[in-house]
Each structure stands twice: as structure tokens, then as C-alpha cells.
Write a structure and sequence with these properties.
The protein is of the alpha/beta class. The chain has six helices and five strands; from the N terminus they run αβαβαβαβαβα.
Amino acid sequence: MLPSVPAVTTATRRALAFTAGGFLLWLIIAVQLFVNTDPLSVHRTDAVIMLGGAASERLPAAQRIQQELGIPVLVLSRTDTFGNRAADAVCGSAAFPNPALVCFRPPDLDTRGEAQAISRLVALNGWKSVTVVTSSYHVTRAGRLISQCTTADVQLVASHPDFNPGQWLRRFVIETGGLIDASLRPECVDQPAGM
């Protein structure tokens, strides 16, 4: 016997209410993980590191933090990509060796590759603490991956993109997937942290 029309309608309403509630809960968690990421306090570290991408937003934040806290070394991820052209230009116009500027190209042009490169830079330079600057939506995942690769104190500082609601929703989906991936597939598990 087939269910009556009111029973199907009630089941459909319950399913829709459950789905809407789940979406709303995910949205609240996403805002906390990917938007409200500013640290309560920021302290001086051995180096400030800007992760690649969105350099027009991240580079000024990294330079401001370096200047305000008197951090001796600015480290830039060099990717030769469209979104990173401001940082790539700084690296391309600098004279090296330069004790105040380090430019590195991650082995893979992603956050995992940057975490590996940062681990090597920390070990090579004997840094005990670093400030990592990246976009607010990227802070949680980047922090998890970098902390998996180094024992240095890692302080994350967010730059803030000017996104519309659709762009934020897209980043929420991407970063939720990336955070799950970083949790299920930790980086640098085959090497001691800091190597």
C-alpha cells in the first residue's frame, strides 16, 4: 500500500527542515572557522611569512605586521601565478642574498607544499617562532598543515578579502573540504617536524 499524500508531505517537510538546519549549522561553523579568525593578540616572532596567492590582500598585511612588530625577516612564497604577482614582483626586484627578505618556491604550488618549505626554512634558519599571513578563510587549514610540519611556534594572522556572499559560500565549501583533507591526510608524517 502506498503512503498517503499527507504522510509524504510531512516526511518531505521533515527532510527539508533537517537539511536546512544542517546547512545553517554548517554555515555558522564555517563563519567561525573561515571569517572570525583574528588572533586575540599578536607578538613578535623571528620571521613573517606570507603564503602565496591573493598577494594584493596578503602582502600589505604581512608588511604591516613586520613593521609594527619589528620582525627582522619577511618571507614570501613565490608562485609566478596571477594572484601572487605583487609578491612575485617584490621577489623579482630584490637583490639577493638579502637578510631581510627570503623568497621561496614551494615544491608543490599548494598549502601542503608551502608547509613543507616552511618546515625547511624554520630548520635552516633556526627560527623558534614565525608569523604566517594568509587570507582569513585559509587560516584554519594553513595553520593545521604548517603545525604538522614544524615544532616552531606558529602564529597566524589573517588578511581580509572583500568577498560577496557567493564568493564566501564558495570559499566555505572549498575550505571545509580542505580542512577535512588536512585532518585525514596529515602533512609531513614521514619526517620529523622541523625537517
